Amino acid sequence: MSKSLQAIRGMNDILPEQTPLWRYFEGTVAGLLDAYGYRQIRMPIVEFTELFKRSIGEVTDIVEKEMYTFEDRNGDSLTLRPEGTAACVRAVLEHGITGGGQAQKLWYIGPMFRHERPQKGRYRQFHQIGVEVFNLAGPDIDAELIALTWRLWGALGIRDAVKLELNSLGTSAARARYRDALVAFLGERLGQLDEDSQRRLKTNPLRILDSKVEQTQALLADAPKLADYLDEESQVHFEGLKARLDAAGIPYVINPKLVRGLDYYGKTVFEWVTDQLGAQGTVCAGGRYDGLVEQMGGKPTAGVGFAMGIERLILLLETLGQVPASIARSVDLYLCAFGEQAELAGLALAERVRDQLPSLRLQVNAGGGSFKSQFKKADKSGALYALILGDDELARQVVGFKPLRGQGEQEHIAWADLASFLASVDLTA
Ligand code: HAM
User: Fold this and answer.
1) Could you tell me the strand order of the sheet in which 333-337 lies?
2) Which one, 13, 147, 410, 412, has the greatest CB density within 10 A?
3) Do residue 112 and residue 49 come from a single domain?
């Protein structure tokens, strides 16, 4: 017997019951980004593998272990994008969007792919909304990005459940000096390091700072601190950011161990974390990457951005019970028609109503059925009211208007008056 076909592990269907919440979430974010003057960009899902190696970094978990990479029919190595920043930088360079030095505030939405171990809040295909800003080097724009996300948490009713963690990674020169000091310190204590950190000491030592191994964390207590190696410019930048967040009343904590898993960051890095989702608690993360555009072959160009994980934020809305009641229903009104003649009149009537009330969510019964079965379907649709067309209504050129929940008598409305009648009643209450 053939095995039934299934979706790939860690790649989820988003079912019709779930999409209203997704659309509410995506619409809320898009509206906010519009209001702050960000413009949407859409990049391909597949890029040359080289792009991700050069931007995210050869010795990061993403590039070493998590990419969906394949050879296409031309023999090119291609990769399903694991994140959006690299492709966005490639796109702005390719189209000369940042070349003139003018500020660019961009955003994107879409699926990303990482071959991680699936668990709650961690998937192999997941979705991000990301923002990237180019040619603005000051802390003012870092603060705006954070203020924007803070406003979003407010609009979604989840502010109390998220916490902002902040750090500065300094310039690449400062990081290099710190890396040497850290490697020297840990090198002398190699035997006490866990195996993974021993490997990272050679490849990506800063990532040891966010190791989950207790013994390694204990060892780090006496290790050199990144903050002590920060250059003047980065310190001033970081102070500027903190002052702006203080002025705007946005709470944050400094997490000196926050280093992020992608190599392109310098100066500001931040994560919004929640303790409501278990292990996968980072719902939004980002930072500054002033060196990336140049590294990818462009002129020196300041860059800063973030991306939020849509699945995690949807989970958080559900966990906190912050799903607006209005999105539970997708139908306002259900039209039942009994018999061939009533169906003909019903369709014509429905189309006339739609001409005049284009945003009305009117579902017309399809597939016929008895009085009982059509009412059952009307009830199941979630609509609060039904329109009824039977022989009697047909003869009188009226339509029945009947509340489906609670009390209330059926009324009869003349066909000619139907649209104006519907416009005058609140069909959601
Ligand atoms: P990231 O930290 O790798 O950063 O991902 C950003 C967010 O995407 C995470 O905080 C999380 O919410 C979500 N996410 C990541 N991996 C998964 C997964 N396997 N399953 C579910 N959600 C996930 C970046 O991607 C950077 N490009 C962000 C950025 C933009 N930095 C500057 N500009």
Assistant:
1) 362-364, 333-337, 385-389, 398-403, 411-414
2) 147
3) yes
Quick one: how far is CA 51 from the chain centroid? 22
> 146 is written with which tokens?
């954070």
How, if at all, do strands 411-414 and 398-403 pair? antiparallel
- The answer to whether 334 and 327 are in contact (CB under 8 A) is no
- Spatial strand order of the sheet with 68-71 comes to 46-48, 77-80, 68-71
Which residues have C-beta atoms less than 6 Å from ligand 1?
83-85, 114, 116, 121-123, 126, 128, 130, 132, 261-262, 282-287, 305-309, 311-312
| Same domain as 276, residue 341 | no
Is the pLDDT at 14 greater than 80? The verdict is: yes
| Pair 166, 268: CB distance under 8 Å | yes
Q: Which of 291, 319, 347 is the last residue of a domain?
A: 319
Q: Give the pLDDT of residue 180.
A: 95
Residue nearest to atom 20 of ligand 1 (CA): 122
Number of domains within the chain: 2
Mean pLDDT, rounded, for 140-148: 98
- The C-alpha atoms of residue 374 and residue 387 are separated, in whole angstroms, by 11
Q: Compute the average pLDDT of residues 95-115.
A: 96
For residue 362, the model assigns a pLDDT of 97
For residues 62 and 114, the answer to whether their CB atoms sit within 8 Å is yes
Would you say 408 and 429 are in contact if contact means Cβ atoms under 8 Å apart? no
Q: Can you give the residue range of the structural domain that contains 368?
A: 329-423
3-state secondary structure of 6: coil
So what's the pLDDT on residue 327? 85
pLDDT of residue 374: 97
Token digits of residue 28: 């809320």
- For ligand 1, pick from 14, 108, 120, 282 the residue to mutate: most ligand atoms within 8 Å of CB: 282
Concatenating the DSSP letter of every residue in 326-345 gives: GGG---SEEEEE-SHHHHHH
Give CA–CA dist 391/341, Å, rounded. Answer: 8
Alpha helices in 205-309 (DSSP H): 214-220, 232-248, 292-295
Closest CA to 22 of 109, 130, 150, 139: 109
Strands 253-254 and 163-168: parallel
